[in-house]
Design a protein that fits this description.
This protein is α/β, with parallel strands linked by helices. It has helices at residues 24-35, 39-51, 67-78, 95-105, 117-128, 141-149, 165-176, 191-214, 230-241, 253-261, 269-275, 291-296, 315-321, 353-356, 363-382, 396-410, 419-425; strands at residues 58-63, 82-87, 109-110, 134-137, 159-162, 183-186, 222-226, 245-249, 265-266, 278-281, 301-305, 326-329, 332-336, 343-347, 390-392. The termini are far apart. The structure holds adenine.
Amino acid sequence: MNAQNFMTTPVTSLQYDIKDINLAPQGKQRIEWADREMPVLRLIRERFAAERPLEGVKLVACAHITTETANLARTLQAGGADALLIASNPLSTQDDVAASLVADWNIPVMAIKGESTDTYVRHVKAALETNPNLIIDDGSDVVATMIKEKPELISNLIGTTEETTTGIVRLKAMVAAGVLTFPSIAVNDAQTKHFFDNRYGTGQSTLDGVIRATNILLAGKTLVTVGYGWCGKGVAMRARGLGANVVVTEIDPIKAIEAVMDGFRVLPMKEAAKIGDFFVTVTGNRHVIDKEHFEVMKDGAIVCNSGHFDLELNLEALREMSQPAVTRRPFVEEYRSKDDKKSVIVLGEGRLINLAAAEGHPASVMDMSFANQALSAEYLVKNKGTLEKGVHVLPAEVDQEIASLKLRAMGVSIDALTPEMLEYMSSWETGT
Ligand code: ADE
């Protein structure tokens, strides 16, 4: 069956580009399964269907094409948006999900797991051809491409949202360079996003990816967490739970103290490189594992990345030091040194291991992340033309509302401030 036959309304010159439309039935089952763990997004979808706050808005969402993203897309569509989805990473697409979005929801998708960088770039450019009013970005590639290559599209843009820490760092660099001339919502900065998605989501899904790829026991192994931001904290915490001896490396003295006081050993990378069995990079920076580190690693050391881009490991240097890589299992490549003395194993080509070898963060945390995305889209449309250019965060009440809805869905009740407490919190006279 030809996937192209399914579309009723052409969206771009490419329309859509997916692996195989016949995968749709499995994708639909999995999307609905994830939806059971996304009660907050479901409530927003029901309200959006009634109120249609995104009616007629042309929206491009650049995201990991997963079951959870599919439920976000359904929500945006329920709100009236004309949404087009593209992959935010060449290795993270779930092809059955892409098929189901096209076949079951009539939402165009351009994403194929394993697509080349050229195809990825072609999809970004084709998405921009739709002249979107809203862009939901994940890593800021679409926004950066628009600013560099299609600045004329900015006049039609209401605003953008950004999912990741990495993307927000890029947006701030755009502000500093004076090129961010529209409002952008830093979804990652909402507490209901990074406290949960980055920590518990990355923590669980990264180890899930490492285990699915290698099937190696972590108990008793030394696992080096490179970076102790919210993602690093999650990886370290969950690796310890599986019995690994966790070592942390950092460049920020405050985060390093946190790691020490959380009970982890903190070492410079050059030292950690000598003792690690596993290495997980979560820094958002370039070449945090470099040639000098590969050189001193133990035979059989396993390295992977769970940060947004695939530049955290200097794989060019590793390739130069090694014989041609040998694939040992899916997502597992062995780089044997030229002198034949030792190997370094790279997982998932250095791309996000939690999405390359596993399925990304579980739905329960993406529920809050994507509730933030949906409400940010609504906020941008409601405040069209009134928001200053630059990087914004959603109002704190929205964060509180998402948290309250999540707690209710989890069946957890909490206390409220009594009038006496409220009075005390707003007074200054009472002291010693
Ligand atoms: N980022 C990390 N995990 C994800 C998921 N399951 N869906 C979309 N984006 C993600």
